[in-house]
Amino acid sequence: MYVCLCHGVSDKKIKQLVLEEGIADMRSIRKCTALGSQCGKCVKQAKQILNETAAQLYKQAC
Question: Which Gene3D superfamilies does the protein's record reference (predicted)?
Fold first, then answer.
């Protein structure tokens, strides 16, 4: 599913950045994808995906 229509960023891309690149904050995601730099409607949903993915990663580590 596309999260950021302006820049074509999907939920899979956000999850990939968290899981494979170790990115854990919106600033880093914005640097890699330009997410939220145009209309900003995607930021809330992107934060939710980021937090959920990071929580899953943490649970797997424990």
Answer: BFD-like [2Fe-2S]-binding domain (1.10.10.1100)
The SS3 assignment for 4 reads strand
For residue range 5-53, list pLDDT tens digits in order: 999 999 999 999 999 999 989 999 999 999 999 999 999 999 999 999 9
- Residue whose token pair is 């990115």: 23
Written out in words, the top-level CATH class of the domain with range 2-61 is mainly alpha
Tell me the chain's radius of gyration from C-alpha atoms: 11
Q: What does pTM read for this prediction? A: 0.89
What are the start-end ranges of the H helices in the chain?
Answer: 11-21, 26-33, 43-61
